[in-house]
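Trying the structure run again after the queue cleared.
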Amino acid sequence: MTTAPGPAHGVPPMPERSIPALRAAIAAHAPQLLGDFEANWRTKVADTYDIGAAPAFLARWWGEYALARDPHLDHHVRDLEERAAGCADPDKARDLLEEASRIHHRVAALGPGE
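Done. Tokens:
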């Protein structure tokens, strides 16, 4: 089992849990996500006029931003996923993916200011 690195010094805190605040945080601290964030907003919410999809949209992008704001943690998770994809041992691949999943779940549960 691998040990996930802790938050790096200088990692911005999570924003208020709202779509406008999350969009502003992405624009400021993870601009590489902004195009996909806005395209996904249009596809899932704006173009469908379905505001019922907004909570799922926020949950998905909350987790994406939580990882992307910490380049070291993001790299660690991507490395786990890439190593699992290339692993010939199914048990080792499962262990790598379970570790990545634990990190995804942990960061998705972060609250504003964390």
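The chain has a mean pLDDT of 94. Worth checking whether this holds up in the mutant runs.
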